[in-house]
Amino acid sequence: MSASSAYPIGMYKIALIEPEPLHTAWIDELIGRGGVSTARTAPNEADLILLGLETFGESEMDFVESLHAIFPSTSIVILSGTDSRLWMGEAVRLGAEHVLEKDDLTADTLASAIRLYAAA
Q: Percent helix, strand, coil in the chain (nearest 5)?
């Protein structure tokens, strides 16, 4: 059985890259409340990469671009800890599908993003 077939049909495979342990627990809680069936996995097996960023400087831009280059068929959604209006366009240009601000994040918005971008 291949690794990808080990997941039940209809379950989204999510790679969560989040440097803050408290944010990781909070994001996991939101996913659970959103009613989406997910399994955490490595980026190379993921349908979607959720990338937590507190800032968006040059090193973060390079990281998004590298993730997209390594996993070009995997959607990337950034969970931003800052006002993303100034750099959202650049993040999308570098390979992110969307940017959600953590301050505005709810179980419903995260579930909608997972359904939309993991299925893309």
A: 45, 20, 30
